[in-house]
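Example record

One chain of 191 residues, shown exactly as stored in the release files.
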Amino acid sequence: MTMITSDTVSHPVALRDAMIREAQAAVIDRIRADPDAACSTLVTIGRIEEGLSCRITQGKFQATADMGRGMGGDATGPSPGFFARAGIVGCVGIGVKMMAAREGLLFRSMDVTIECDFDDAALMELSPRSAAPLASRIRIEIDTDEDPAAVDALVERALAVDPWFLALRDAQVVRHETVLANAGSTRAPAD
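Predicted structure tokens for this chain:
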């Protein structure tokens, strides 16, 4: 139950943080009761037909990714890279704010910025470098009166458990398979 005190009433952010803390406490209790139930697999599907526009669905949510006209697309949506970077800044920002709310640190606002360096020639197989980001920089700007050392420690802990920060930072096993729909055959997964 959310405790409303004179301090939370005078700070709408604190009231909202109390609600976030309460919701997370319920999730933590469920996970402690059954840790195996916390493991999941999310399935996201992208469908491309004519052109490069990709209709993306995951459960009840939909988005469209496309390339700009200079790359042969129709610019019906942001590029896939936009969604990747948006996922990282959203995950980092929300993850840090969730932990701050859970631990009672008041953050009035946060801005998360990601800068990624690319060699676009690698995308066209014209460079020996990787088409992956060559370097990425994340800046987290927090409007708070909290102790700077406590904020730094919290951010480090939040990043250590942030799925999309870790996906960007750490190598992982990624497998793929190719299925030819018209032939009805599946090729062996590539490792």
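Notes: Residues 1-6 have pLDDT under 50 and may be disordered.
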